[in-house]
Amino acid sequence: MSEPVSRLDERFSDPGTQATPWENAREVLENAQLSWIATVRGDGRPHVTPLVAVWLDGAFHFCTGPSEQKTRNLAGNPQVVLTTGDGRWDGGLDVMVEGEAERVTDRPALERLAAAWTSKWNGEWQFGVTDDGFSNDVGGDAYVYAVRPAKVLAFGKGTFTHTSYKFA
C-alpha cells in the first residue's frame, strides 16, 4: 500500500499545528484494543457496535457471526466506518477509517489473520480457519472482513489537529 496524501484541516486544528504523520495514525490502528464499527441497516438506520480488529497489510480487519446484525447490514450496504482512539478529551489520537467491507475467504489470508489476532492479544483471541472464515469454541463461526481505507481521519487532542488521509 502506498503512503496516503495527508492534509491538515485548519478549521478544526489549533493555529500553527502540522498534519499528523500517517505513521502515527497507522500506529493507533495497529495497537487498538477496541474499535467501533458503524454500518447501515436495511431501513437506513445506523448500527454501531464495538469489536476487536486487526490492522494488517494496509487494511482494517474484523470478524462477525453470520447471523449478526453487522452481517445482515453489510449484505445490503458494504460501506462502513471503523473508529478507534483514546476516550480522553485532552490527549491522544482518534482515528476513523472509511471504506467498503469485503469478505476474506482466501485460506492463506485467513491463516495470517488468525495468527495476527492470536499475536495481538497474547493468545486470548484464537481462531481456527474454515472455508468461510473463522471458528472458535466460544462464539462459533465468524465471517472475516477487510476494510481497505478510502479515507482516514485523525483527530489529535490536547493540541488539536484534524488530518485527512486520501488513498489512491
From TrEMBL:
Compositionally biased spans, kind Basic and acidic residues = 1-13
Question: Which residues belong to the signal peptide in this entry?
Answer: none
Which InterPro entries does the entry link to? F420H2_bilvrd_red/Heme_oxyg (IPR052019), Pyridox_Oxase_N (IPR011576), Split_barrel_FMN-bd (IPR012349)
Cellular component terms per the entry's GO annotation: cytosol
Instruction: Please list the residue ranges annotated as the Pyridoxamine 5'-phosphate oxidase N-terminal domain.
Output: 23-134
MF terms per GO, please? coenzyme F420 binding; oxidoreductase activity, acting on the CH-CH group of donors
* Annotated segments matching region Disordered: 1-21
Q: What's in the keyword line of the UniProt record?
A: Oxidoreductase
Designated name of the protein: Pyridoxamine 5'-phosphate oxidase family protein
Recorded source organism is Actinomadura syzygii
Q: What is the lineage of its organism?
A: Bacteria, Bacillati, Actinomycetota, Actinomycetes, Streptosporangiales
